[in-house]
């Protein structure tokens, strides 16, 4: 998610996302100059951001915590950058930086595009390597295999990649980015077009998931990770703040059960911080929410209710196993999640 202040609303009607990212990749063979190495890189995220939340989930499911460290920026930012205000002294303890912007400028002085999370930063030089969030999670699955935990799931299986890519493409266009096209629309026509596409796709997803537990195959894949992070923010933010209000997620029976199933799966709910999510959207988007008041609701208890999706079969981790609990340093504060003592 980029940094920006002032107006988020598209002045010409339709919101168009800038998708020009740093295309450098961290690969097993190091062909871009950045080989996979334990302890060499730091994944910088904000728990508020759905794109960063994907990387957090995949890193945890694959068990990469000990080889790829993680820095967590605060939920809000200003025009210059995400800041490390959650850390003592307001500096990332590994990178020594106050702002993620510093890592971008160390590699690209005067970098003019968005200072976005997630970003992978080289620890020794403090230089950003990549912020290409879509490729990043695929590479964590395919390029970091030598360091996956025993029992790690296969999130991007070879025989299902074409179908995963197809599902991801339409979900991104109409849902992941679709909620932003609603919220940042600059005209009634642009909003109504985005709204129609969003709910048509959610209906399509409901029909697809009515008789199957996961989006592609019978295990959790990259496709489920990408949809989950939008669904997790739907009632808390998108329904009201972005005017995606035909129904709440909790009023869509199939998608609500599907989202709860994933939330209650290790790696999903225990990486989701509703406090950071709400603070980011409602405090930063002042042209949409001028007062900056953060809603007290919704009640999160419903995320822990039985979902009944086990009856559809499926094996969440395939032949693998669930990840262990997050470390104390990476545990979402109890007040920011309905999990509480359930973890």
From TrEMBL:
Keywords: Transferase. The record marks 238, 281 as: Lowers pKa of active site Cys. It comes from the Bacteria. The active site is at 49 (nucleophile), 180 (proton donor/acceptor). Residues 311-343 are annotated as: Disordered. One of its GO terms (cellular component) is cytoplasm. GO terms for molecular function: glutathione transferase activity. The keyword Transferase applies. InterPro entries: Glutathione-S-Trfase_C-like, Glutathione-S-Trfase_C_sf, Glutathione_S-Trfase, Glutathione_S-Trfase_N, GST_Omega-like_C, GST_Omega/GSH, Thioredoxin-like_sf. Residues 157-284 form the GST C-terminal domain. Coiled coil: none annotated. Glutathione binds at residue 82. The keyword Cell membrane does not apply. SUPFAM superfamilies: GST C-terminal domain-like (SSF47616), Thioredoxin-like (SSF52833). This is Putative glutathione S-transferase. It comes from Phytomonospora endophytica. The lineage of its organism: Bacteria, Bacillati, Actinomycetota, Actinomycetes, Micromonosporales.
């Amino acid at each position: 998610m980029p940094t920006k202040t002032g107006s988020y609303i598209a002045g010409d009607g339709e919101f168009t996302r800038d998708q020009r990212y740093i295309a450098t990749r961290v690969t097993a063979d190091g062909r871009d100059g950045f080989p996979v190495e334990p302890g060499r890189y730091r994944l910088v995220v904000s728990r508020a951001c759905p794109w960063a939340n994907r990387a957090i989930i995949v890193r945890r499911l694959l068990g990469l915590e000990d080889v790829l460290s993680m820095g967590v920026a605060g939920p809000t930012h200003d025009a210059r950058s995400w800041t490390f205000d959650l850390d003592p002294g307001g500096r990332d303890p590994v990178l020594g930086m106050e702002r993620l912007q510093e890592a971008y400028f160390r590699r690209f002085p005067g970098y003019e595009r968005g200072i976005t999370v997630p970003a992978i930063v080289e620890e020794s030089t403090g230089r950003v390597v990549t912020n290409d969030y879509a490729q990043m999670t695929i590479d964590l699955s395919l390029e970091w295999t030598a360091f996956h935990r025993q029992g790690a799931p296969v999130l991007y299986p070879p025989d299902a990649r074409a179908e995963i890519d197809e599902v991801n493409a339409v979900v991104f266009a109409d849902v992941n980015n679709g909620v932003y096209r609603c919220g940042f629309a600059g005209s009634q026509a642009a909003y109504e077009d985005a709204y129609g596409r969003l709910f048509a796709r959610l209906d399509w997803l409901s029909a697809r998931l009515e008789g199957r537990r996961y989006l592609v195959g019978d295990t959790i894949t990259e496709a489920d990770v990408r949809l989950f992070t939008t669904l997790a923010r739907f009632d808390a933010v998108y329904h009201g703040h972005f005017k995606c209000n035909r129904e709440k997620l909790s009023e869509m029976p199939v998608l609500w059960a599907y989202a709860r199933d994933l939330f209650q799966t290790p790696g999903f709910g225990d990486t989701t911080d509703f406090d950071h999510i709400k603070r980011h959207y409602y405090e930063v988007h002042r042209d949409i929410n001028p007062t900056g008041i953060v809603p007290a609701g919704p009640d999160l208890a419903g995320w822990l209710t039985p979902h009944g999706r086990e009856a559809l079969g499926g094996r969440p981790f395939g032949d693998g196993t669930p990840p262990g609990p997050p470390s104390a340093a990476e545990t979402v504060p109890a007040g920011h999640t309905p999990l509480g003592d359930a973890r």
